Amino acid sequence: MAVTLADVAVRAGVSAATVSRVLNGNYPVAGATRNRVLQAVEELEYVVNGPASALAAATSDLVGVLVNDIADPFFGIMASAVQSEIGEPVADRPGPKLAVVCNTGGSPERELTFLTLLQRQRAASVVLTGGALEDQSHRAALIGRLGRLEAAGARVVLCGRPPLTDTDFPAVTFDNRAGARQLTEHLLGLGHRRIGYLAGPQARTTTRHRLEGHRAALTAAGLGGDASRLTVRGSYDRSAGYYGALELLDREPGLTAIAAANDTVALGACAALRERGVRIPEDVSVTGFDDLPFAVDATPALTTVRLPLHEAGVHAGRLALGRDEAPEGGVLVCPGELRVRGSTAPPRDA
To answer: Where is the HTH lacI-type domain positioned along the sequence (predicted)?
Structure first.
């Protein structure tokens, strides 16, 4: 049985008129009340139906772009590329469209809420960027939301995110495992044997894939036994790199290299090393990941793996508008490229 406006009103403890005002946005509603209504909408998975169903099935000129953190250049570069592509009119092709960037803050609940809201706005397309949360209940809910968007006429594209199995949503993804393995093999090739790793947050696909690549290189070199002790987990920000590097130095005074989960974490690690009087790379080498714009301007310039963030965003934007055909098998895997710079060198005792 279809969920009605009245059902939402009962769940939220407000009148049907208040629910209508919140959904239509045509009358001021107190913030706490609005949040209760939106939470009820989310819990009941309410979508406008009845006489409005024909309108709801039509699509607008809106494209939703979901990011974890728009202030993070990793997401900002992809979102900007998507927006530029869908905003360009092309003769005899769909477009231009209006991009709406939805900042989830890494919250799975906000991700689902934004998808419901985008369906209500009859979004023409939705692009989901960045790694996915490894949680089966969230995955099931996500597939349900995306399926309803697709059924309403929206195109769904994954960008920088692994494909969702049992779905046919096209995905432009990165080979994080191979990139991380390249970086660790570079350090091993220089002679490093005591290598610390600053991992990202638990239960994220990007975190797991990069850590797996790092450990695969260590195992192949016969050094996998100490990998857990020399791994510190944190977020993908500078403070995680700063405090994580200090912890690694305390765990292993003989540390000669640190591989960071991304460039921002690597910068934090460099700051901690300098504070301890540790020289980079003379005493400890440091690597990042992603090759964000600031990596080449760091002191010393950061050895990292370049991911084609802009190119992936452009392709995702073209897929979102139907300008490009979906890749063969539905998945385009973009390899990373090792960029060796001044932050890595052979250890002193090599």
So the answer is: 3-57
